[in-house]
Amino acid sequence: MTMTIHHTAEPEANDLRARLDAATGRGQRTKTPTMAAVVRAKGSHLWTADGRRLVDLAAGVLVANLGHDHRGFERAFARYAKGLPRTAYNFLTPIEVEAAERLLASMEGNRNAQKLLWAASGSEGIQKALWAAMHKNPDRKILLATRKGFHGKKGLAGDVSGEESPNPNVRWVPFPTDEIEPKAHYAKELDRLGRDHRDDIALLITEPYLGAAGSYHPPKWYLRMLQDWCRDNDVPFILDEVQSCHGRTGNMYAYQTYGLEPDLIVLGKGLANGEPAAAVVGRADLIDALDYGEASDTFSGNPRACAAVCAALDVFEDEKIVEHARERGVQLRAVLDELKAQFSFVTAVRGEGMVYGIEMRDDDIARECVLEAYRGTGKKGVHFLGPLAGKVLRVSPPLTIRREELYEAHRILSRAWTRVG
Ligand SMILES: Cc1ncc(COP(=O)(O)O)c(C=O)c1O
After folding, report:
1. Phi/psi zone of residue 148: left (φ > 0), alpha (ψ -120 to 50 degrees), beta?
2. Are residues 288 and 412 in the same domain?
3. Domain holding 356: CATH number?
4. pTM exceeding the 0.85 threshold for the entire prediction
């Protein structure tokens, strides 16, 4: 049974929540103690149905990297989208060609960024990347995935997420979390897998950092070691950049931050600043392993999604978003460190660029922190993703957040969290 969330003094939002719960299934949403009802958004601010204002420290789920209702983005998007057909199934539009060419060009210098496939969600992009590698070597069965990753819930993306799989062909490679073992530890595991499944490994998939599992950012040598091992063993190396793409780690792409050149890279979330678009970019021989129709579906490469991809690239270039994010990331880190110094229930702050996790003493404290941040101070609050990663709160504001907005969030949290515990 669905327990409708109710907050005091929120008549409008309480009515909307009750009606939503009556009309839709709860399975569509992730669990949060707040369930804010947002009627307007601008930049890094959200306005609730009852007239409160929240600083957005989530950007959806790392989606609205340019913030909400960004003037440059909306104008460019409207310009690109003007007059486009509503669908381009079985025909092409120039906007798709432009979006594809520009996305490849945005990876200039990456020798493997040769061709792409569109998808309509991150997990579909992952599925297509896995299919591409599996079709390239159809006689190989084994899928290697780094443990505790999250690549989506659907199909093969779900099979290679977490640390247990319903798919008997998935094998797990350890990923450094709280304890970082010496390099030899991981190398030994990889070599063992290589020996056990000689000539039978179709691919290895990993994330630049474990976001959903609670913000674990590995040392650079770890991901390079995975890539080197893949090269030595002729195994396609797939990097899931669904959440790290478009500026999160302080570079346009995380493969640049970590000094990698993966065979396939999956992009999503911030790629089109909120329009549903995802893509797999990589080696032409892998992308072309899929024949006509094998990766087609109704919405992938949709003209408006492609228009949004172009508009986002325009703004990233024109407004030097990555440089801005790098600078703001330093302030974000300082704010989070100050919160850690102020509140003893904050046990760790982990992250890089504009993506962090705040680890709390336990899940209950994390839940209370989300709630009290929302309640904030009077008419103002702070919006977090619900504590999706147990006791770790994810922090991923729009990359365009202004310094004052960040400091405003800090002021609200440093008062609101005195009520926690
Ligand atoms: C790293 C990563 N990969 C894949 C996905 C799946 O994307 P989607 O929810 O668009 O299917 C997510 C979503 O959170 C993600 O964070």
Report:
1. left
2. no
3. 3.90.1150.10
4. yes
Least confident piece of the model among 139-153, 195-209, 380-394: 380-394
Q: Is the pLDDT of residue 173 over 80?
A: yes
What is the rounded average pLDDT of the residues 249-271? 98
Percentage of the chain exceeding pLDDT 70: 100
How many angstroms separate the CA atoms of 144 and 15, rounded?
A: 47
On whether both 327 and 225 belong to a single domain, the answer is no
Pocket test for ligand 1, best of 269, 280, 394 (most atoms within 8 A of CB): 269
| pLDDT, averaged across the chain | 97
Please give the number of the atom of ligand 1 that sits closest to the Cα of 278.
10
Local confidence band at 414 (pLDDT 50, 70, 90 cut-offs): very high
Note whether 150 and 181 are same-domain residues. Answer: yes
Distance of CA 337 from the midpoint of ligand 1 (Å)? 28
From ligand 1's centre to the CA of 153, what distance in Å? 8
Rounded distance from Cα 122 to ligand 1 centre (Å): 5
Dump pLDDT digits (tens) for 180-223.
999 999 999 999 999 999 999 999 999 999 999 999 999 999 99
| Shared-domain flag, residues 170 and 257 | yes
CB of 211 closer than 6 A to ligand 1?
yes
Here the tokens at position 231 are 């090269």
The pLDDT of residue 386: 80
Which of 244, 268, 301 finishes a domain?
301
Angle between helices 321-342 and 303-318 (to 10 degrees): 80
The answer to whether residue 76 sits within a structural domain is: no
Into how many domains does the chain fold? 2
Quick check: 1 pLDDT over 70?
no
Domain that holds residue 206: 88-301
- Give 211-280 as a DSSP string: TTTT-B---HHHHHHHHHHHHHTT--EEEEETTTTTTTTSSSSHHHHTT---SEEEE-GGGGBTBS-EEE
